[in-house]
Amino acid sequence: MTSAGESFPLTRHSVLAAARSQDGAERARALEILFASYWKPVYKYIRLKFSQSPQDAQDLTQGFFAELLERQLLSRFDPAKSRLRTYLRLCADSFALNELKAASRKKRGGEFAHVALDFSGAEDELRAQAIDPASIPSPESLEDFFEKEWIRSLFSSAVEELRGACEARERQNAFQLFEAYDLAGEENISYGELAARFSLPLSEVNNQLAWARREFRLIALARLRAFCESEEEFALEAKALFGVSRQ
Question: What is the pLDDT of residues 23-72, one digit of tens each?
């Protein structure tokens, strides 16, 4: 199973290309990356759009990804017509509607069963966001929500990979500073306060934070690139997320 902190592979060619590979190991690895990146946005989207209980949303999420494999839906994706996340959202819509109409949801596994799903963590995030499905005014709002959740998933996995990279390089201080200053949401915290908290020179705080931020951006861009079918698409996506066009 792929853990979030492992080095992210397939950074120079599309995960989709690898998912269509004749090499079973490469295909399985790519599918795990795809599912790990998309299961949480799909789960939250189904929970809100179809007003499903956590258990039913779990069943639908697992069933959707099983169908994605069984019906080889990835082979039908055309990057000229839409982005991958738009295509997957529409596929999830169609699957959930059909399952709810038929009232015949089943827990299915397949290769997707190898990816550990932290549904309770996803529920905690939804509660923290305090989103009331009835307050969502239009389908467009849910589309925006799915988009933001995909970005959240991308950044969260990049943070975990950065954590692992810092541990492997014995640069735990860099991650702790990055976590305290950029992730914890402490308002008005200064570099001087961080220097005192971690018993580091001010210059070291500055250098470590600069390194961690640079590494985080490189990791996130590598993950983003793997989900783009062309350099043109990657340039547009990178500019939208970071204001840069390439790594």
Answer: 888 888 888 888 888 999 999 999 999 989 999 999 999 999 888 888 88
**pTM, two decimal places:** 0.77
Asked whether 227 and 84 are in contact (CB, 8 A), the reply is: yes
Report residues of the chain scoring pLDDT below 70.
1-13, 104-116, 130-140, 244-247
Residue type, 140: E
> What is the C-alpha end-to-end distance of the chain, expressed in Å?
28
Question: 114, 136, 158 — which closes off a domain?
Answer: 136
Q: What share of the chain is helix, strand, coil (3-state, %, to 5)?
A: 70, 0, 30
Task: Say how far apart CA 87 and CA 176 lie, in whole Å.
Answer: 37
Query: Which residues form the domain of 102?
Result: 10-136
**Residues near 207 by beta carbon (within 8 Å), at least 6 away in sequence:** none
Q: Which of 112, 136, 160 finishes a domain?
A: 136
Q: From the CB of residue 217, how many other CB atoms can be counted at a distance below 10 Å? A: 17
Q: Which residue has the tokens 């988009």?
A: 147
Coil, strand, or helix at residue 58?
A: helix
How many domains are contained in the chain? 2
Reduce the DSSP state of residue 18 to 3 states and report it: helix
**Contact criterion met (CB below 8 Å) for 63 and 107:** yes
Block residue for tokens 């200053």: 181
Do residues 130 and 147 share a domain? no
Residue 84 belongs to some domain of the structure: yes
Q: Say whether both 115 and 167 belong to one domain.
A: no
Tell how far CA 67 is from the center of its chain: 20
